[in-house]
Each structure stands twice: as C-alpha cells, then as structure tokens.
Amino acid sequence: MALSRRLRVLAYHGIEDPASFAAHLDLLVADWHPVSATEVVADFAGEVALPPNAVWITFDDGHRSVVETALPLLSTRDLPATMFVCPALVEQRLPFWWDVVEAASEQPLRTFKAMADADRRTRVAGLWEHLDRPTRTELSGRVATEAELQRWQDAGLSLGNHTLDHPMLDRCDAAEQERQIVEADAWLDAFVGDDRLRLFAYPNGHATPAANELLGTLGYSLAALFDHRANRRPVERVASLQRPPIISRLRMSDTAAPSYLRSVLHGWRPWLSRASEARHRTVRRLVGAR
Ligand SMILES: [Zn+2]
User: Fold this and answer.
1) Among 59, 77, 200, 221, which is 20 to 30 Å from 160 by CA?
2) What b-and-e string marks burial along 51-80, b requiring 16 or more CB atoms within 10 Å of the CB?
C-alpha cells in the first residue's frame, strides 16, 4: 500500500516551545494534509476516504500549555486538532501524578507504572503530602482549567476521553476501569454535549479487552493507542473488526527538530518495526485473535 494512503496520528503532550511547534505546523501545512477527528471517524466508518498524506494532530492529558501556546498557532493556520483530557484533574485542580513522582521520588516512573492501581495511588498521595506549597501550586497549574478547555472548544477543536485521572488501565480491576471510562464520559457529555464524537485515548497506550468492549458499548468511534506507528488503510480495518476501531499514534515532542518530525511521518525509523510488532500483539489480543 502506498505510504501516502496511511493515516498518521501525531500524539503530543504539553507544548513548551512555540517557535518549534510553529515549525512543525508549517511542515504539516506544506507537505501533509491535516484532518479532523470527524474526517478520521468517517473514514473508519467507510463513509468518506481521507485525502493522501492525512495527519491527525492530537494532544494527550489536557496540558494548559496546549491551550496557551498551541491553540493560537493552530487557529491562525485553521488546523483541526483533538485534545484527550482527564476530567478529575480539571475539576479538582489535581496535578499529573507522574509530575509528583518526578518532583518527589528517586524511583523511576516505570516502577510506579508497574504497581497495582491502588498501591500507586497510595504512594503518589504520600509523595504529594511532602511537597511544599509552591511546588504543589506549580504542578497543579500545568493542567488546563474548564475555562481554558472551553476556549479550545469555542475554537472548533475537539475533546476526547483520556480516563478520569490517568491510571494504567491494565493495573486497574474491572470496576475501576469502568469508573474511569464512564465518569469521564459523563463529564464530557455535560461539558461538550451528548451528541459529541466519542473519542478515547488509552493512558500510556495500555489497552485492555474489557475497556475496549465498554467503549464499544458506550458508542465510542475510536480508541487510540500510543504505539508509534502509522495506520494502513483500509487494509487495517482488521483492527476495526473490533468496536471501536483501534488506532495507532506516533509520539511527538514539540521540541523535536522538523527533520525528526519528517522522518517519523515517513516511517524512516528502524525501531518502528519493533513498535509495529508490539502493536500487532495488542490488536490481536483485543480482537481475540491468536
Ligand atoms: Zn496520557
């Protein structure tokens, strides 16, 4: 299949360097075809075909910097984008838990990611207690407020579900997985409207069969991974045998050189093949294939 027929989905987090991110957007405008979530969903549904060199721009976690820095740069170029948010952090002004770990623990993040969900929560709460007030204020301030997310929405950009407060779903029991997805879904219904496009991104890309089945029941149009590969279309509708379709994304940092962005979009990375294998294992697990 021609490379131009693949859908690339870029997954950014916070945006710290406006000039560098502007260079990314200029590259996308010049050489690629940025598309909206609506177009991606319509393509997966077989209703329309995406243009060649389609790229969907996404942001995970709901960083304030995305509204402050990325939104004006997207708007001046009239570019669509989607932000996947965690409503509990927004409503309760909570920090990203990994920021707490990095500020207060010597242990690597991966140690916390491997913990059972309840254990991780207890450990992170303990670390949070020991942070001084200025650090707590700084960390909580990294998350976008409701007013900021409203600005994002008012600009015509979409919001998606990234769970209630960003656990690793594969470390949660079934009841907690359900709570994380259903409560975030209800918040988005209230904030955006219940006729919204239902979009989901797995925190850390950790998909589980139970979560994917629930997303299908709730009417989600797609569930995004974090596996660093492009989507072949329509051959990869193999993934869409599962409801919702599982979609691959390419990790990207706003501070990366445009040459790096170009190489990732073109798939010029030898380790992509290893990521590809991992992704296929995930898809096979989710569709129940061996
Ligand atoms: Zn995330």
Assistant:
1) 77
2) eebbbbbbbbbbbbbbbebbbebbeeeebb
